[in-house]
Amino acid sequence: MGGSFRAFWFWNEIGHFPVDQGIMEKVLEYRRHAEECRGLASQVIGQEIKAHYEALADMWAKLAEERLTFFVQDAAGPLDGS
Description:
With 82 residues, the protein is α+β, with helices and mostly antiparallel strands. The chain has two helices and two strands. A two-stranded antiparallel sheet has the order 1-2. Helix 1 runs antiparallel to helix 2 (47-79). The chain is elongated, with a radius of gyration of 16 Å.
């Protein structure tokens, strides 16, 4: 146990939980990908390509939330005394 633990805090309706820096970095990376896809969607003219970028943005955003939600659900047990 020689490593250090850096955490961010995540708040939701259940409470607040420490989120490991590595997990939070991935969540933020996925959110950046989503924003990049939304930006590209706003720049293209063709509706088919625009829809493709919007779908990609939605998938990145969903992946970010699922990763965070999975961690929070996993962490909820020990943090609430279970």
